[in-house]
Amino acid sequence: xxxxWVSQGSVTEDFEALLAKYxxxxxxxxxxxxxxxxxxxxxxxxxxPGDHVLVPDYTHVATANVPRLLGxxxxxxxxxxxxxxxxxxxxxxxxxxxxxxxxxxxxxxGLPNDMERLSTLARRYRFTIIEDAAExxxxxxxxxxxxxxxxxxxLSFHAAKQLTTVEGGxxxxxxxxxxxxxxxxxxxxxxxxxxxxxxxxxxxxxxTDLQSAIGIAQLKKIDRYLSTRNRAARLYxxxxxxxxxxxxxxxxxxxxxxxxxxxxxxxxxTRDALKRHLEQEGIETRTPWPPLHQHPQFRASSGTFQxxxxxxxxxxSFPMYNTIADSDVERVxxxxxxxxxx
Length: 342
Fold this sequence. Notes:
The protein is an alpha/beta fold. It contains 11 helices and 13 strands. It has helices spanning 10-23, 34-44, 62-69, 88-98, 115-125, 176-186, 209-219, 222-239, 268-280, 306-314, 326-341, and strands at residues 27-31, 53-56, 74-77, 102-106, 128-132, 140-141, 144-145, 152-156, 169-173, 245-246, 253-255, 261-264, 315-318. The strands form 3 sheets. Strands 1-9-8-5-4-2-3 form a 7-stranded mixed beta sheet, with helices on both faces. A 3-stranded antiparallel beta sheet has the order 7-6-11, with no helix packed on it. Strands 10-12-13 form a 3-stranded antiparallel beta sheet. Helix 4 runs parallel beside helix 5. The longest helix is centred in the C-terminal third of the chain and has 18 residues, at 222-239. It starts with 9 loop residues before the first helix and ends with a helix.
């Protein structure tokens, strides 16, 4: 504020450099939100109307809305019932049928996808991977952080995330040409040295130095935040009753980011009753997003989505945030046990 420069400037450049270093990517391009990050990445990859995009059925609607806004047909793929990420067998079947240009792999709740498996499919069927890591900053795949595996990765810094700039996002890449195109897309297609001279299609996706200053402060704390979230998740897993099941953590995941903590009940009726009980006791819970095929604009989607449907009907998101204390977890567990015994 004292500098007199609050729009995008040198503080954003500092944030981008620190973010790239933390995530292990060569470049980070900060934008105004996570949806913009996906939009920027697709446009920088020279997406064209008609290019087919595959996305998992179980994700926030933004994952599919962004390519549709760009004129791309979007096909939905069911999820793995254990990890809640995209089902790779279903994905391969869909890829053979649709021959997509892009596959957006979403790290649900902060759990990284199997990027080696996805990369093998990408080479075999010649599609581009974009990792939607909106929920997984700080997570690790085979002891390397999300964003350090060579493909394009997009992040979100919404207020609910592990790292927040209130609203914000970023594109991570190791490709210098893609980085240059992202910066053009972010700024109406204008290169920095030729103001008001647009050389490609772009928009105003810029962030601000105010938000970037928050991001720099948050980066100093993120490892502590992740440690707190992982401790809370361990306590939940150890102390919640056996009637609940949890997201499987495969061996390739060396760190979960736990943007959310999802538990799965035995039925929708039980989930809804548990949710009511907890809310009556002053404990806020969430029912995560409906699968995309249940949204009006996707109801004509072909395919079967039994796993995403079942998860939506039975999943509940327990409290999880950067400053959650052991006592907070214990209170939730105590009330869940009281519900079970009642």
